[in-house]
Amino acid sequence: MDDTKCMVCLAKFYLEFTVDESCGKCTPCRIGTKRMLEILERICNGEGSELDIYKLEKLAINIKNASICGLGQSAPNPVLSTIKYFREEYRQHVLEKECKALECKAMAKITIHPEKCKACGLCQKNCPVGAIKGEGRETRVIDQDKCIKCGTCLTTCPFKAIGN
Ligand code: SF4
Ligand code: SF4
Ligand code: SF4
Known about the structure:
Elements: H1 7-21, H2 27-44, H3 50-66, H4 70-74, H5 77-96, E1 111-112, H6 122-126, E2 132-133, E3 141-142, H7 152-156, E4 162-163
Helix pairs in contact: 1-2, 1-5, 2-3, 3-5
The protein binds iron/sulfur cluster (3 copies).
């Protein structure tokens, strides 16, 4: 994991695991973690609000306090830690509807930075849906209506000209 990871997705990943692992004996763990996961999914889909961050924190503390075993007591920790250290990233997701890591596909807008593009055409050759326009020495441009946000061009551009 490095600084290109989305912290909201990371929290969601861990919560998916604990939701699966909960034995269901106590309600806060069985139901509360599911509600937390729904909130995180909403945020990653670009439908979150600032109130959701507050709800996550409240639910997390209640689940930790009311669960009877270590799983429920620790399940909300990744959410609490990521909010504590990366609150600004959560706020970007809910207020600006932006995922800088481009992991939340519903919000991602992948663009080519014209000042960095060397017109090599590599991204165009690899785009599975023909969403990249331009010929010869022209700077390439992504057609946002066609782009399915697969992320292939991000990894193929040798000049790091593609981002958000
Ligand atoms: S806290 Fe432990 S005992 Fe309670 S539901 Fe979760 S896994 Fe089961
Ligand atoms: S791969 Fe990069 S440099 Fe080459 S055309 Fe695409 S954006 Fe431009
Ligand atoms: S993200 Fe995928 S679909 Fe969109 S322009 Fe890049 S390669 Fe094409």
